[in-house]
Amino acid sequence: MLYARYVKLNALEMETKRYDVKVVIEGAATALIPKFANKTQAFTNLYTKFKNARLIDCVCKACAEKMGALQAALEQNLPFSPAILQ
Question: Which domain holds residue 46?
């Protein structure tokens, strides 16, 4: 979970420096989607700030389904890659 924290921190910092930043959530990282939405988990505030800044480009739908996080991604209205939807 620590690596996911650094991705969010770096993306937020780069955005403040006016870089065009987008993050793709794929692989095992998709399993963290329901955890970060849980207000009792660590780093929920950071995730909320990251999500509200619209820094998530897309989520791998197949990965989220395999990791049991598809429903959480749908509930959070996270975007899925158009190529993955075909």
Answer: 2-85
Cβ neighbours for 73, distance < 8 A, ≥ 6 positions apart = 30, 33, 59, 61, 64, 80
Q: Kindly report, residue by residue over 2-29, the tens digit of the pLDDT.
A: 557 778 888 889 988 999 999 999 999 9
Contact predicate 14/6, CB 8 Å: no
On the question of pLDDT at 60 being above 90, the answer is yes
Distance, CA of 61 to CA of 50 (rounded, Å): 20
Split into its structural domains, the chain has a count of 1
Rounded to 5°, the CA angle 60-19-15 comes to 75
- Structure-derived torsion over alpha carbons of residues 26, 31, 37, 43, reported in degrees to the nearest 10: -90
What is the DSSP code (8-state) at residue 29?
G
